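Inverse folding, one chain.
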């Protein structure tokens, strides 16, 4: 079901309050909310319109937010199961939410929906030092989990840019990555098991607690990255790593993005295994410097941030190899340090990209569209060259940062959101960048998800066979189409 911010759900000719839109699920605008309240925890159901509306969208631009029927702030798994049983019985859409830090509109309300917020399910249930696993509820903040694990000598490597505010459940729902992915992988590489509430209210356990297991189809994997379209994740078992070693950090300064891209390709082809390999273009560096005192060189055309947590002299050797390759590819300056304070400063500069861009766009009209394309590392140089051509064709600005080590780039289109012409051009530029990613054998989203924002592009990336499989799975798991309708799978 497709909705818009100002759309309404009309009753059908019988006056029952049920309607369908574009073949989507039936929406019951007269669902008996007192019945739902009677089976929920006290105060879990919210019907105050102002509160509901405040929960009706995530951080994405240009994604519709409908008029939700109600908000449920679940206090336990029983609340989640009760919502799904009620929704299935009364044909009410359900949009699952956590911290609503997403960038694709996946948490946005649809007309007549129940917003099911699971942020209160935020307990770390168990940390097992022997099996190196933990069990957590979906509302646990990523950074809070890292702090808790460190006390046990353990670590959970995935570290999205929103690490301090995003939840583990949201990270699983989008298969989030971050800056350590180049060596340690993304969320799916750590999920052992999930407890999921299905569309009819059934509570089921998927996956396994053990490090190995091939009994039956890997159903847990289907729910990782599914953006709330297949079920509601209420508990997660994660595999962990021993506490990561303090890294050696290097910085390479380049005259342009193409030389930085060639360096990434050559460095990774050399067999290097950095624990981080991040990139910022010159525009981004300037904005970060304007945001905080990080001491980055303003004259840089591009900057690569590299870390190695290899033991002993191996880490230094990896950085020396980076220096050699970077200089061969045209770097104007390369330096590295094993001082933890230096490492923290440079990583803080990389993490400051998002607030630095927010500060900058506030001066030009407040518009920012963050792209999320991922291309093969071998084609990064070509990607940057063609991205520069896109930037040159348009009057809106494009600044780029991203996870160079795995080819996941985040070009940001910056524009005046109050100017219709600027908005139109920003959308056009954003689309050209996604098409560029596909042209180079990549994907429209590496970690932010599809949601509303990119659902029309998903059909361009998937062939007919893949689309049919995905539709078939969605229909089998959610036959009424009530789980996050209109998002991702459309």
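Residues assigned per position:
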């Amino acid at each position: 079901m497709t909705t818009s911010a100002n759309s309404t759900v009309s009753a059908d000719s019988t006056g029952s309050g049920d309607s369908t839109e574009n073949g989507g699920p039936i929406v019951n605008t007269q669902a008996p909310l007192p019945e739902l309240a009677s089976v929920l925890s006290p105060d879990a159901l919210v019907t105050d319109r102002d509160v509901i509306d405040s929960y009706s969208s995530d951080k994405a631009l240009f994604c519709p937010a409908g008029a939700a029927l109600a908000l449920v702030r679940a206090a336990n798994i029983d609340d989640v199961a009760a919502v799904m049983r009620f929704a299935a019985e009364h044909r009410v859409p359900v949009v699952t939410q956590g911290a609503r830090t997403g960038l694709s509109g996946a948490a946005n309300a649809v007309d007549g929906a129940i917003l099911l917020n699971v942020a209160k399910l935020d307990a770390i249930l168990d940390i097992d030092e022997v099996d190196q696993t933990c069990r957590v509820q979906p509302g646990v903040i990523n950074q809070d989990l890292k702090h808790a694990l460190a006390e046990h000598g353990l670590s959970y490597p995935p570290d999205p840019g929103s690490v301090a505010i995003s939840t583990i459940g949201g990270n699983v729902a989008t298969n989030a990555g971050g800056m350590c992915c180049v060596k340690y992988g993304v969320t799916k590489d750590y999920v052992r098991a999930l407890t999921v509430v299905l569309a009819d209210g059934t509570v089921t356990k998927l996956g396994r607690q053990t490090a190995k297991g091939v009994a039956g189809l890997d159903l847990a994997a289907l729910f990782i990255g599914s953006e709330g379209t297949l079920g509601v994740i209420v508990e997660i078992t994660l595999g962990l790593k021993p506490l990561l070693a303090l890294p050696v950090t290097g910085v390479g300064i380049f005259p342009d993005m193409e030389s930085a891209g060639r360096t990434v390709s050559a460095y990774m082809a050399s067999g290097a295994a950095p624990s981080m390999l991040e990139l910022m273009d010159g525009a981004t560096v300037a904005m970060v410097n304007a945001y905080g005192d990080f001491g980055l060189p303003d004259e840089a055309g591009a900057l690569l941030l590299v870390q190695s947590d290899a033991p002993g002299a191996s880490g230094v050797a990896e950085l020396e190899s980076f220096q050699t390759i970077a200089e061969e590819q045209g770097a104007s300056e390369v330096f590295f340090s094993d001082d933890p304070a230096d490492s923290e400063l440079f990583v803080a500069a990389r993490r400051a990209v998002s607030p630095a861009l927010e500060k900058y766009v506030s001066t030009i009209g407040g518009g920012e569209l963050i792209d999320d394309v991922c291309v093969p590392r071998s084609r990064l140089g070509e990607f940057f060259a063609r991205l520069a051509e896109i930037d040159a064709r348009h009057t809106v600005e494009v600044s780029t940062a991203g996870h160079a080590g795995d080819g996941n780039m985040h070009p940001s289109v910056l524009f005046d959101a109050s100017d219709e012409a600027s908005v139109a051009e920003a959308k056009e530029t954003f689309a050209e960048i996604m098409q560029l990613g596909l042209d180079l054998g990549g994907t429209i989203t590496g970690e932010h998800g599809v949601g509303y924002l990119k659902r029309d592009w998903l059909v361009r990336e998937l062939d007919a066979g893949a689309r049919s499989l995905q539709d078939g799975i969605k229909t089998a798991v959610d036959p009424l189409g009530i789980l996050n309708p209109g998002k991702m799978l459309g």
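The domain at 1-120+454-483+486-490 is CATH 3.30.43.10 (Uridine Diphospho-n-acetylenolpyruvylglucosamine Reductase; domain 2). The chain is about 35% helix and 20% strand.
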